[in-house]
Specification:
Order of helices and strands: HHHHHHHHHHHHHHHHHHHHHHHHHH
Cofactor: Mg(2+)
CATH class of the largest domain: Mainly Alpha
Keywords: Lyase, Magnesium, Metal-binding, Plant defense
CATH topology of the largest domain: Farnesyl Diphosphate Synthase
Strand content: under 5%
Helix content: 55-70%
Pfam family, one: Terpene_synth
Shape: globular
Distance between the termini: 28 Å
Domain Terpene synthase metal-binding: 242-479
Number of strands: 0
Structural class: mainly alpha
Largest sheet: none
GO biological process, one term: diterpenoid biosynthetic process
């Protein structure tokens, strides 16, 4: 979901050409234009064509509102228009796809296009952009289009000998909400087929008129130059870990590479360096604190750490209970003060107090969990989730980053219900995804989570049933969050809202099907793919210089 800027506009195609009852040529033009937009976004270079993309989307949206017959009657185009407009924040209803679902009940009428893999793929991708539980039509399309696509993959048909085969596999295995942007960009660059994109990209809808080779070269150059930046930033962060003595804490998991992957994989443009670095730093700190509260610290040490953070600048009055407490507190104190000073300059107001409050809220919630565990108290599911959405510790990672992505954020925005709801939905979705995958480990450590509580309070509910039952609230949170992020109105600026969605994707990335975060190897390949490994271009593509 790239934000688009509106500078350097080229004279648009006449709107009357796209009115109701337009010719089939209009459908071809719209389809080719949106294919261009799709390719640019998939390659990670759409920001270089922001004005042209905005123009194309605005014109397409007018056609959508006019219910252009040629768009509505061409299934693949209709699905693609819906997906790309919704992804870019335009208000489009899924109701127009009802005629597709209705046709599904009439197998003869489906025969013409459901054997068309490209159409099926467009329907499947569109179906994933649900923003409400009321959009059952999208769930229906997702179900049968996914089944048919999988059948085609298994059938041993001619599809397996085409580039479309790998595209279908990728779409089925990597929903847009469960992968990192930069990994997706890499996949699209490495699987970019010059021949198949040639005709689409040679059409004159972009003012710069890039060829397919130009697009590929831009994607390669952007990705490769970014990797150099990422490598430098990660080296700097590794030095910071040592300087902060965090590597001296025996109980702490070393997860810097994973947190930096989540930052570089989502906030990939060069100008977001400060946001990436603070995201990774605070991710490391929250992991250290989480491990300290879970296994590393005594009750006295934990109470001491909470008191120190509450005292903040007056912490010397109470002193440190242990060397471990000193290292943990000093790392938080130094990082937050440095971050607060930089953020305050960008925001033209003092935000350090707000950053400290975020940490106080986190530590108090973690202390509540410790007290529950030590006393044997079993909270209600509601009590647990209210507290656990905070102890999932996304606050210190995401909320400070909002100050570094561009817009000014007045204090009124931080107190706005929309801000709080974005945080609640993101944190709840992440917590539930984590709980489903970490139940066994946490149970062995004497910790309750939403899975075990559902079993305890649900009577005969099994672990497997509890995990399945939690999928519904996970889906609801994801859809509600995406709806808030895409909504044009609201107090929170769009670039800031997108950070909540990016973290939601990170949570899916690490906790879809496994506990990828706790593993030392599960995501190591992706770290290298985003940060270290050069692109591997297919032999059929001309080798390109990235200089």
């Amino acid at each position: 979901m790239n934000s688009v800027r509106t500078t350097g506009l080229r004279k648009p195609l006449p709107v009357e050409q796209h009115g109701k009852g337009a010719s089939s040529e209009t459908t071809t033009i719209i389809r080719q234009q949106l294919q261009q937009v799709d390719v640019l976004e998939n390659m990670g270079i759409s920001r270089d064509f922001a004005a042209e993309i905005k123009r194309i989307l605005d014109i397409t949206y007018r056609c959508w509102l006019q219910r252009d017959e040629e768009i509505m009657q061409d299934v693949a185009t209709c699905a693609m228009v819906f997906r790309i407009l919704r992804m870019n924040g335009y208000d489009v209803s899924s109701d127009v796809l009802y005629h597709v679902a209705e046709a599904f009940g009439l197998h003869d009428s489906l025969e013409g296009y459901l054997s068309d893999t490209r159409t099926l793929l467009e329907l499947y991708k569109a179906s994933k952009f649900s923003i409400s539980g009321d959009e059952s039509i999208l769930d229906s399309i997702s179900s049968w289009s996914g089944i048919l696509l999988k059948e085609q993959l298994r059938s041993g048909s001619a599809l397996q000998r085409t580039p479309l085969f790998t595209e279908v596999e990728h779409a089925l295995n990597c929903p847009f909400y469960a992968t990192l942007d930069r990994l997706d960009h890499r996949w699209n660059i490495e699987n970019f087929n010059v021949t198949s994109h040639h005709q689409m990209l040679e059409t004159p809808y972009l003012s710069t008129r890039p060829t397919s080779q130009d697009i590929l070269a831009l994607g390669v150059r952007d990705f490769s130059s970014s990797q150099f930046t990422y490598q430098q930033e990660l080296q700097s962060l590794e030095s910071w870990v040592k300087e902060s003595r965090l590597d001296q804490l025996p109980f702490a998991r070393q997860k810097l590479a994973y947190f930096y992957l989540s930052a570089a994989g989502t906030m990939f443009p060069p100008e977001l360096s400060d946001a990436r670095i603070l995201w990774a730093k605070n991710g490391v700190l929250t992991t250290v604190v989480d491990d300290f509260f879970d296994v590393g610290g005594s009750k006295e040490e934990l109470e001491n750490l909470v008191a120190l953070v509450e005292m903040w600048d007056e912490h010397e009055k109470i002193g440190f209970h242990s060397k471990q407490v000193e290292i943990v507190f000093s790392s938080i104190y130094t990082s937050v003060n440095e971050l607060g000073a930089n953020a305050s300059l960008l925001q033209d107001r003092d935000v350090t107090k707000h950053l400290v409050e975020i940490w106080v809220d986190l530590l108090k919630s973690m202390m509540t969990e410790v007290e529950w565990r030590m006393s044997g108290y079993v909270p209600t599911e509601e009590e647990y989730m209210t507290n656990a959405s905070l102890t999932f510790a996304l606050g210190p990672i995401v909320l400070p980053a909002l100050y570094f992505v561009g817009p000014k954020i007045p204090e009124s925005v931080v107190k706005d219900p929309e801000y709080n709801e974005l945080f609640r939905l993101m944190s709840t979705c992440g917590r539930l995804l984590n709980d489903v995958q970490t139940y066994e480990r946490e149970y062995s450590e004497g910790k309750l989570n939403s899975v075990s509580l559902l079993v305890l309070h649900g009577g005969s509910t099994s672990i497997a049933e509890a995990r399945r039952e939690l999928q519904k609230p996970i889906d609801i949170c994801r859809r509600d969050l995406l709806r808030l992020v895409l909504r044009q109105e609201g107090a929170v600026p769009r670039p800031c809202k997108e950070l909540f969605w990016k973290m939601c994707k990170v949570c899916y990335f690490f906790y879809s099907g496994t506990d990828g975060f706790s593993s030392t190897e599960a995501r190591a390949r992706e770290v290298d793919a985003v940060i270290n490994e050069p692109l591997l271009l297919q032999e059929r593509n001309t080798p390109l210089s990235v200089a």
